[in-house]
Amino acid sequence: MGRTLDVLLGRTTKQTARLKSLLGLATKRITVVRAHRQVRLAQARGDVEQLLRLGHPDRALLRAEQVLREQDALDVLDMLESYCNLIAERAALVNAHRECPDELREAAAGLVYAAARLGDLPELQEVRALLAAKFGRGFVAAAAELRSGCGINTKVVQKLSTKQPGLESRQMVLLEIGAEKEIPVRLHNTSYQEPGISNSHTQRTDEQDDERPRATPRAADDDDDDVSAHAPLAFKDVEAAAQAAFESAATAAAAAKAAIELSRAGSGDPDDDRYRRTPGRAHADDEMPHRGEDLARSRPASVRTNRGL
Q1: Which residue from 199, 192, 236, 193 is spatially nearest to 218, judged by alpha carbons?
Q2: Which of 37, 228, 265, 279 is in Cβ range 3.0-4.6 Å of 220 for a Cys bridge?
Q3: Angle at 159 between CA 150 and CA 80, to 5 degrees
Q4: Residue 232's pLDDT is what?
Q5: What whole-number distance in Å separates Cα of residue 202 and Cα of residue 168?
Q6: What does the alpha-carbon distance between residue 84 and residue 27 come to, in Å, rounded to a whole number?
């Protein structure tokens, strides 16, 4: 009965009053941090614009990551500010329950989760300690570890994630800034013409280009043998090039084998071929003994006697 009366009259304890004061300080701090983040966001967007004007879309794509991070930080600050205002307005409800009420669970869990990930808001550390003393350490541990049923909004988790933004998100930033500043943006060999063009259109265009027939090696004409023999061949992929090389090697091996067989079949007996190429050599060999006898007869008798002839 007493707690119900405190809720109706708006009465709070010292602990709840301290919580309400910290939430007010956190709200003021959020306003200051938001202003700094807005300046950094404007600088990042300006860098992307300058890179697009200079014709460096790749570098602009890298800078777009900072644009997304600053925008996510601003979105989280807006959500945390609403959480702080909600709990501060219903501080009496916090004082009347030992467990976190369902209508405040998302706000309380969101502040606990963000306290460990936003160093720009030191007041949230004390808010987390007060919530742990009020609702128990189990509630704070469940929110910090993202346990099932903790009540945290998934947008808060996504905005505070440290993962690198996806390629599509960064491309959308470039297209948005290009449309706003009337700068043509070229992504994946596709020109950006209107703000309504999305990445899905770019992807479909790339798929259509891939489906087009590519040039394949073709036989050369009889009149262009000398030219086409030295012309480079275009292949679809590595497998096509390897297949062409294998076929060429097989053809060369077959031609070499046929040449060897033809040379063996046409050569015949080596001795016959030798004599066929030099027809006068056989006759000369037959005359060699007769010439020797003639020389022996023509020598003097004394010479023949001394040598035993």
Answers
A1: 236
A2: 228
A3: 65
A4: 52
A5: 11
A6: 7
